[in-house]
Structures
1.
Amino acid sequence: MTMNVHGYAAHSADSDLVPFRFERRDPRPDDVVIEILYCGVCHSDIHSARNDWHGSQYPLVPGHEIIGRVTVVGPKVTRFKVGDHVGVGCMVDSCRQCQPCEAGLEQYCEQGMTLTYNSIDRHDHRPTYGGYSDHIVVSERFVLKIPAGMDLKGAAPLLCAGITTYSPLRHWNVGPGSQVAVIGLGGLGHMALKLAKAMGAQVSLFTRSPGKGKDARRLGADQIVLSTDAAQMAAVAGKFDLIIDTVPNVHDINPYVSTLALDGALVLVGYLGPLEEMLNTVPLILGRKAVAGSVIGGLPETQEMLDFCARHGITADIEVINMQDINKAYERMLKSDVKYRFVIDMASLPA
Ligand code: NAP
Ligand code: ZN
């Protein structure tokens, strides 16, 4: 027996998402079945639905910021019971044996992680489908505990936007005294501001949107730099220890490299692909600066991030939408018009 599931899918790169029925596997011994309550809307969902990365397989059910309630547990499940509030992020499996997997860095699995959607399951070789749906079946190793009392809607974006920004902040040892800047105030950017502030850093925002300054201050920014204003850019030359770049599109990073301090690093988490303009190595060499990248975070660190957020009273700033409004939400995100993450209320899916 398999489970019939309702969801929303893209059927091609240039069509709207529409209702879609499909099957989920029966739980394996180590699986939990999760009734999905909320799912955040990540810019990666748009990249995938529209085949921006050239690997999309259709039908494609996006969604990797999943919050739900456990309804069934397999016989070998030890960490969860029916009724628990849980989360699922961007990956649902990995080889579990290589050195990165052993170290809890499953996102860097040498055989490649199994993504929550648009991947092939390692066991039954069927496509994975994401969280824009009413149920999902996931091995318990890839399921997170949602801390008691945390707002469930606001917790959904932590599963991708939260961990994707938390992981580089931790890897580059951000703490009191650090000068951190964030490029782009969207879903990832607003989490980066909150998390960096909670870690004790001095926090700045680079934005192209003059209207976002007031929100940015509320979210934790001590300083706003309008990246289109050369004088404002020059005023922060050599300032930052760490810059987290969340811009989803190709862009010139050279002006931002100039704002790194000695030993500073600019970490790309948004755009995937060759940069334009070309990277000028002169400031890197003369300032021992680094340009780096980072993808999501492993399971132990994702749980650490959720617990950190619970301790600091952090969740995402969200706009709750019905599943039926997803195509409008994509259009608004493409115009940088979201404060600061859409979250789908799965109760809006027809039964
Ligand atoms: P988002 O909510 O759409 O926010 C992106 C922000 O970037 C915008 O609000 C805008 O901020 C700025 N921006 C957009 N286009 C720009 C351009 N052409 N030049 C300069 N700034 C621009 O997106 P998101 O969900 O935060 O995702 C951001 C990127 O991260 C996406 O590419 C997504 O696929 C990727 N991602 C990566 C990982 C990972 O593990 N590495 C995980 C999740 C997502 P301002 O208005 O403030 O300028
Ligand atoms: Zn994402």
2.
Amino acid sequence: MKQLKERILRDGKCFDGGILKVDNFINHQMDPVLMREMAKELVRRFSNHTITKVMTIEASGIAPAIMVGDYLNVPVLFAKKKKPSTMENMLTTEVFSFTKNKSYTVCVSGDYLGPNDKVLFIDDFLANGNAAKGIIELVKQAGATLEGMGFLIEKGFQSGGAELRGKGIHVESLAIIKRLDNCTITLE
Ligand code: 5GP
């Protein structure tokens, strides 16, 4: 998506370890106009699917997910990183965090995810696909159907995209980073 690619080249910053920082418009300060355009484009790319629920993981996936849910007019369910003591019918799985370099448990209530749900997962970044794999597991536990996975930014030099597409999942990314070497951002 042209607008996003231009913004990444203008405002994105590279950090050691292959981290791209987009705090100026996605991860800290957010640009709602661009966010809305990105959501519209993701909805267009999944228009041949019937979606009953958008899922994401807190916190950075929530902004794009709620906008996608608004366009699709379906509920948005985010996996929580802390187990609430009051959650009923809890489904859980472990996710390894690329940016924090540790595993954590994510959970959703089975009250909000069940066999009739057709799920579109939305997240800000796709790196090694660990967050995505956690969602695949939760969808499986609930007996729901995964329709697709949409990302704002995919780091094409990490393994997640190939793995998910290799499983036959419909994956869409609005911008794919080819390289982040020497603090230079190269897009596909
Ligand atoms: P994965 O689970 O695919 O390995 O990593 C994706 C998750 O890690 C995303 O939810 C995102 O929050 C975070 N992440 C991975 N790589 C980056 C990055 O380069 N920059 C930022 N800001 N977040 C990242």
